[in-house]
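Retro notes, structure queue

What went well: the backlog is down to a handful. What didn't: a couple of records were mislabeled last round, so from now on we paste the full input next to the output in the thread. Example, using non-specific serine/threonine protein kinase from Rhodosorus marinus:
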Amino acid sequence: RPQGAPSELHKTFTDRTYLDGFVAPPGTPMLPGCDLEGVLGKGTFGSVMLVRERSTQERFAVKIMNKEHLLRENQLENITVERQVLRNAGPHPFIVECHSGFQTEDVVVLVLEYLSGGDMFDLLAKNGTLEEEEAKFYLAELAVAIGELHRFKFVWRDVKLENILMDELGHIRITDFGLAGRYASGQATDTSIKDISGTAVYQAPEILSRKGHGRIVDWWALGILAYILVAGRPPFRSDDYKELFSKIEKEELDLDKDERTKILSVEMKSFINGLLVKDVNKRLGSQGDAEEVKGHPFFKGISWEELEKMEIPAPL
Ligand code: ADE
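Corresponding output:
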């Protein structure tokens, strides 16, 4: 089918039975004309299935969440905000595309584009660590993607390796916005979101101190991720949550002391240190958000307009 034209599956959902918010009658086939090819992931609220549309042979990643479970865990807000993010912030080259969303009696379903390149967790597991040039490329695309979410006044709050998918060429697409939040104003001091969620090692100090937090938590988490990409492990580590959180809040990192990070360029060290500033108002990104982050010397030489067409630096 011509690029950009809606697939039959897409049309089925939007034109006919499965309008958003519409509850299909029991017995209606959920994904007519599709074959189930496998399971891509299982989460707390459901699974992501790999589905192939027979007529076009096109693959989709179908995220199915159990309504009862969502309700029991008070997660209705989360799936609503996830749908909002996907609808508002997309389509964007670095954000996973949502073809449609619908519901049945029992489940809420998001039909997402399928990305065949795996996620960044697997990439790192395979390579151990990335070369700085390679990490820089991924971090550049991430900065753009996070900036795009922020532009729509969403805080992602779930920056982590597992939520960064890759297409067949290795370009990233971020996914999973179940923990995202909406913030009212663009101020760095915005304190509209107050709960603790997300993965422990990526939590910003201001989340842990429960002072309320805003979009700047995503830049902290990007700093954690940057460190993980080149060091192969997180900067703050402990099996014990209490100790981990105390380190995040108090421990000062010294990248020149650690064997794994002292070899990094001055620019990359400054980039990581800038993002991992504990004071929200002094953190890289606190003043000019994505533009400030993208303007850091670490990204010198990155052509932001060409990024999505750039060839991925091969691992050495
Ligand atoms: N796992 C979760 N979402 C996915 C997607 N959209 N494509 C491939 N794998 C996934």
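Agreed that this is the format going forward. Reviewer comment attached to the example: Residues 40-41, 48, 61, 96, 112-115, 165, 175 surround adenine (CB under 6 Å).
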